[in-house]
Structure formats: structure tokens, C-alpha cells
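pinning this so it doesn't scroll away 📌
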Amino acid sequence: MNLENPSQENLKFILDELAENLNVVNREILDPKDYDLEKYGELKLMYDMIKQKGQLSAPETQAFIDELRSVRKDA
């Protein structure tokens, strides 16, 4: 899958992967309809960072979740 191009399908994939990697219980905060494709680059950067880093500490996980909240449409 080529994630370089912003699309709804790629956005959903990235958000699903972030939810898995961050062990998000409340998946509502990662609903693709709540994110704008204009923020795709920021979300892709977070995805790449998490994939590269692998295991995150609790404070790192919270920081990523806070960042996700900041790029939501209703933030």
C-alpha cells in the first residue's frame, strides 16, 4: 500500500494502525470522518514515527494521543 498519497482509504489505514500501536481503547477518537485530508501529512508523520520507534512509553503514547486530538476537525 502506497501511503504517500492522501486519500480517505489511506487515512483510514493510518488511523487504524495508530489505534493499534497506541492501544487506544476508545476508537471514536480515531474515526476517519473526524480528520481532514489537509492534515494527512501530519498524521502520516506520526504514523511513520510510531512505526520507526516501535514500543512507546506511557508518556510518549499520551503525547501522540494528545497530538491526534489537536489535528481533529473539532479540535
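📌 and the second one:
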Amino acid sequence: MGFETNVGGIDRIIRGVSGIWLIAVAISALLDDRCTTAAVAGIAGAGLLRNAQAQHCGGNALLGIDTTTSESCSLE
């Protein structure tokens, strides 16, 4: 499956960190017998980690967003 890369830079880092945090929330919720919260957080965390790893986001593709190129602002 050849997906075009559209996630990069700081966006990729934020998705990775958020994904890890949501997996931790899912584990904590599971230990507290909050199964619905655990399932939702686990699915969301896995999705964000997949986006960070594959550098592709379907939502970004639908909206035409590409964070792989950074255009620097010049103060001229």
C-alpha cells in the first residue's frame, strides 16, 4: 500500500508522544475496570502511533494537509 507521506517534523513527534500517553491512559483505565475508557483511549493511541510510524494520516490526506515540508517565516 503506497501511501504518500504527509506527516513530519513536530507533528510526528506530537502524535508519537500523544499516542504513548493514550496507551498509558488505556492501561490505567483497564486496571481500574473502566473498559469503555480503556478501549477508546487504546484505539486512539494506536491510531496516533500508526500515523507517527507510517508518516501518513488519512485525515490530513482528505483535507490536503502536508506537514512534511516546513516553510520558514522570514522577517524581512
